[in-house]
């Protein structure tokens, strides 16, 4: 009857957002008087899997099929269903990220389960099984009651902390038989972004818009990002104009980020841009127009020319770091 949580990894390394999902599942397990089982697919070292115990998982079910090293939505969904049935689980947790979006709806359909995508709260079990989520590009919240016996929850990354406790998860192998169609997509090449902080996992993001005037000015933005250890992002017109690569484009039609700090430089703050960034914990806006809509969503605002402010901000960060070495 345990709460089951799908773990994603990159080349055997489990990223922080998965620990958040285990922590989240652990709180639900406490609410519902059960335990947490994590499902790991593909090649991951035993020590890495055992470390899930530090976030509350009692057990890891491991499907050691090397074909699962790559994300195959049908195979992942099949494995998650098999794991849930193995454990008699009624509550299934995934992340609301690319992997979760490919897998969780398939699982929900097959199990006839209700699903909440982008969960922002623990379930309120006093009122049924009510979970908060954002709707209309973050303009409003919906409180969704899952009525079905089996429930699928897709947790929004960077919503809850990944709190560590004492513990080591016991690993159990799980055999799952897959059909040929489960691996229908062939991954021919993986082009990895290297030498930068990955945007999806970044806790700090420095993002530029059309106010940066052109790609030749990005050096000063990158310098600030480097000094902060931040990832870089951009608005859609910037990517469309090929000033920056498309994987940096955030917003309604781009990526979604929820960092602790989002610094928006020369971005007007259109609703389509905000849709991808308004889950950020702190938003700092640098814009020369005091009427720019982004200031309404900002925690801190600087009115001024980005070309002057960015180098000064970078120098201030550098000085602060030297003083606090
Ligand atoms: C269906 C649809 C989907 C869309 N999806 C997305 C999306 O996913 N992501 C996205 O970003 N957009 C998206 N858009 C586009 C969106 O509506 C805006 O047009 C876009 O976000 C504007 O980008 P920007 O803020 O960089 O540019 P602009 O709107 O041109 O704003 C530039 C800003 O820079 C400021 N500025 C100028 N010079 C300086 C300076 N020297 N120093 C400081 N500030 C300066 C200006 O005051 C201005 O506020 C979408 C639009 C549609 C219709």
TrEMBL record:
It comes from the Bacteria. FAD binds at residues 210, 235-236, 266-273, 287. SUPFAM superfamilies: Adenine nucleotide alpha hydrolases-like (SSF52402), DHS-like NAD/FAD-binding domain (SSF52467). Binds 1 FAD per dimer. GO terms for biological process: fatty acid beta-oxidation using acyl-CoA dehydrogenase. This is Electron transfer flavoprotein subunit alpha/FixB family protein. Its cofactor is FAD. SMART domains: ETF. Belongs to the ETF alpha-subunit/FixB family. One of its GO terms (molecular function) is electron transfer activity. Keywords: Electron transport, FAD, Flavoprotein, Transport.
């Amino acid at each position: 009857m345990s709460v089951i949580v799908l773990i994603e990894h990159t080349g055997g390394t489990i990223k922080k957002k998965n620990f958040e999902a285990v922590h989240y599942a652990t709180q639900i397990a406490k609410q519902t008087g059960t335990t947490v089982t994590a499902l790991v697919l593909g090649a991951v070292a035993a020590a890495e899997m055992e470390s899930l115990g530090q976030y509350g998982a009692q057990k890891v079910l491991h499907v050691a099929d090397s074909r699962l090293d790559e994300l195959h939505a049908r195979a992942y969904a099949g494995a998650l269903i098999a794991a849930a049935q193995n454990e008699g689980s009624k509550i299934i947790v995934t992340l609301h990220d690319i992997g979760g979006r490919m897998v969780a709806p398939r699982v929900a359909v097959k199990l006839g389960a209700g699903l909440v995508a982008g969960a922002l709260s623990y379930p309120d079990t006093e009122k049924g099984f009510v979970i908060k989520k954002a709707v209309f590009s973050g303009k409003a919240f919906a409180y969704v009651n899952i009525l079905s016996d089996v429930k699928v929850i897709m947790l929004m990354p960077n919503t809850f902390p990944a709190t560590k406790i004492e513990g080591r998860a016991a690993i159990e192998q799980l055999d799952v038989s897959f059909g040929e169609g489960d691996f229908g997509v062939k991954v021919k090449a993986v082009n990895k972004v290297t030498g930068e902080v990955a945007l999806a996992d970044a806790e700090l993001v420095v993002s530029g818009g059309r106010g940066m005037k052109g790609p030749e000015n990005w050096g000063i933005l990158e310098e600030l990002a480097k000094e902060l250890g931040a990832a870089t992002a951009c608005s859609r017109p910037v990517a469309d104009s090929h000033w920056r690569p498309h994987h940096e484009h955030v917003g309604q039609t781009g990526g979604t980020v929820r960092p602790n700090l989002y610094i928006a430089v020369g971005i007007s703050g259109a609703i389509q841009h905000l849709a991808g960034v308004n889950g950020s914990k702190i938003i700092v806006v640098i814009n020369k127009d005091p009427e720019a809509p982004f200031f309404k969503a900002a925690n801190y605002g600087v009115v001024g020319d980005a070309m002057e402010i960015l180098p000064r901000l970078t120098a201030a960060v550098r000085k602060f770091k030297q003083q606090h070495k």
